[in-house]
Amino acid sequence: MNIKKNDTVKVIAGNYKGKIGKVLKVFREEERVLVEGVNIVKKHVRKSPKYPQGGIIEMEAPIHVSNVMLVCPKCGQATRVGHATLTSADGKRSKMRVCKKCGEMF
């Protein structure tokens, strides 16, 4: 999975197509992501210390990772992601993500 927490993504399918938001949480096992302001659902909650009023609240629900596309921080476009391996002076290797449109590493 190429998407991490705090990445900016664009929804490419579904009711929220075209909406851009920040990834709040990644569920790797289910291959789903929680995106800020996307896939809003209503949930009935009982009175509790967390929700003293109870009632109906609106919250984000996870969407499948195939329905979002990473937005490049440099060019600002939704893009596919490649990978590049960098070797530092002390011989350590690190894997970086690369924008397929502009070539920027992030």
From TrEMBL:
Listed InterPro entries: KOW, Rib_uL2_dom2, Ribosomal_uL24, Ribosomal_uL24_C, Ribosomal_uL24_CS, Ribosomal_uL24_KOW, Translation_prot_SH3-like_sf
Segments forming domain KOW: 2-29
Keyword terms: Ribonucleoprotein, Ribosomal protein, RNA-binding, rRNA-binding
One GO BP annotation of this record: translation
GO cellular component, one term: ribosome
NADP as UniProt keyword: no
SMART domains linked to this entry: KOW (SM00739)
PROSITE patterns: RIBOSOMAL_L24
Coiled-coil region: none
Gene Ontology terms, MF aspect: rRNA binding; structural constituent of ribosome
Role played: One of the proteins that surrounds the polypeptide exit tunnel on the outside of the subunit. One of two assembly initiator proteins, it binds directly to the 5'-end of the 23S rRNA, where it nucleates assembly of the 50S subunit.
Family per similarity comment: Belongs to the universal ribosomal protein uL24 family.
NCBIfam families, per the entry: rplX_bact
Stated name of the protein: Large ribosomal subunit protein uL24
Gene: rplX
